[in-house]
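Record 1 of the preview.
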Amino acid sequence: MTTTSATLEHPVSDTHAAQAARKRWTVAEVEALFALPLFDLLHRAQQVHRDHFDPNAIQRSTLLSIKTGGCSEDCSYCSQSTRHDTGLEREQLLALDEVLDNARAAKARGATRFCMGAAWRGPKARDLEPVIDMVRGVKALGLQTCVTLGMLRDGQAEQLAEAGLDYYNHNIDTAPEFYGHVITTHTMQDRLDTLERVRTAGINVCSGGIVGMGESRVQRAALIAQLANLPRPPESVPINNLVAIPGTPLADAEALDPFEFVRTIAAARITMPASYVRLSAGRQQMSDELQALCFMAGANSMFYGERLLTTENPDADRDDRLFARLGLHAI
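->
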């Protein structure tokens, strides 16, 4: 049976009236969620989750780096910045045939969305043309399409929308007040401007953040509040647990308490009840038991496949075994 995009991503009607009535969250209110006893928080998140989704269904996406390395930005977590000595070789944009071969393999393994990432500050006109061909080609295979290309200029989101792009990923990364500790070559407002361009063009938004970068709990709460209070919450919210990459400024960052990560997932679910909340980077380091807690907390999307851009991800066989053990099914 073919699952439509609407079935996957819009479980609840998103009318103007519903948007007008949507709660705006203060940072203090989100921080209060984090402070709940863990099982009380999980119970609340699971109730919200069941009100909006099939609690045993997980959306699976595959992410491919279509252009690796050589980024001019200074994001402290990223192996692809030219400012960090991580040993990563700069590569050219992949050929269309290679991208489509990867997309076919992802679909055969059970992914329903194919995400393509390019390490750019933002695409130039000559960069966007081959990416548009990739979007059209992947969409023709019956997969949902997503790209992450950096900051968009006026008119570029419309070009991607015309090509049939389903999602644009552009994470806000962290709390506004912590942003300058992680990135200095652009501002959070630059990111928000790109998200507005994407929304205006009619493309679904995929936007989340990274935790474990040295931020405080209140700053994690501020990240969630910022996402939840966007004019319209992202349809897809990736929550990344920092992968500390040698050669980056965050190489020695202290690992986040696993239960704090679960709390972050639960807070995202409660504040953005109709959004897909995705387990993203850092899943390779998570036990099956921790992932199960995250699913209980409301995570219902994951990256599926052995690589996430330049970092490792659990292999598909391990994920399939976990799904079987937990009684989960893919959508």
